[in-house]
Amino acid sequence: MAVLAPSVVGMTRIAVVTGANQGIGRALVEDLADRWTADDLVLLTGRNPARVTEAAAAIRGTARVEGRVLDVTDPAAIASLAASLGAVDVFLSNATMRITPERTQAEQADEFIAVANGATHSVLRSFAPIIRPGGRLIIVASSLGLLRNLDSRLRPLFENASLDEIEAVVAKWQAAIHDGTAQDQGWPEWINIPSKIAQVEAVRAVARERRQEDLAADRLIAAVCPGLVDTPTSRPWFDDFSQAKTPAQAAKDLLDFILAEPVDPEMYGELVRDGKVLR
To answer: Quick one: 215 exposed, middle or buried, by C-beta within 10 A (0-12, 13-18, 19+)?
Structure first.
């Protein structure tokens, strides 16, 4: 399976993967580099220059792999990368910040929200307009992102909201964390829940505006849940990993779905796990 099988001699497909120094992100780069051809380019991105260089140099696939330093918390950096590329075929937004039990959720909220939500908003704004026909823009999220996981008082804030409105809701939630009113308002203490909900709803907001145009061009915008994956990020929070996927298994499953042709309209703009829409 391949997105945009080259119909023009010498045509280069371009993929960008964020948070790709390790874990699922690196496995996505490795698998995609194996599936694509020597004419194609996969950009492995991360914030740490040494780690980016090391990871990119270690991958031995058919497609070219290049490391690019990208701070996903910087909207200008994301916009600059989009402008420099001009068009891309696959964008996999996978960057995340590792939450640790040793610190309170509130102490970790700002960086977590910047990486998860700020990046999602910037990626959707900068890269959705430059995805080529047949292309894919994917936000790696979680089943925690289902709106039913949120207090019923707060659900209307996200329902049919625009991307700008969702961004404003996230900012107000973040402020409430710091002024101590978040839980009184109904926000759960575990910041992963509202963050993932906001990610999924941001995808839905952009997809509502683009649906007709994208489906006509076989483009896919969606959020995906890889399920439980055995990584250093998940290790502190779960005891039983007997059913967990390895990063390589998770990457294969994700790419099998992401690269499938043609796009299934039922999956467009939705949160998908193991090829099924989560509701």
So the answer is: middle
d(CA 248, CA 53): 20
The answer to whether 118 and 78 have CB atoms below 8 angstroms apart is: no
200 in helix, strand or coil? Answer: helix
Task: Enumerate residues 6+ apart whose C-beta is below 8 A from 132.
Answer: 4, 87, 88, 89, 219
Instruction: Classify residue 179 by burial, with Cβ atoms within 10 Å: 0-12, 13-18, 19+.
Output: exposed
Contact between 134 and 219 (Cβ < 8 Å) = yes
Residue 46: the pLDDT is: 97
Domains (ranges, CATH) in the chain? 14-277 (3.40.50.720)
How many Cα atoms within 13 Å fall on the side-chain side of residue 267? 24
Residue 47 is given by DSSP the state S
Task: Return the half-sphere exposure (C-beta side, CA atoms, 13 A cut-off) of residue 263.
Answer: 27
Say if residues 278 and 143 touch (Cβ distance below 8 Å): yes
Q: Is the peptide bond prior to 226 cis by the omega test (within 30 degrees of 0)?
A: no
pTM over 0.90: yes
pLDDT category at 101 given cuts 50, 70, 90 is confident
State yes or no: pLDDT of 6 exceeds 60.
no
Q: Take residue 236 and report the two structure tokens written for it.
A: 């502190």
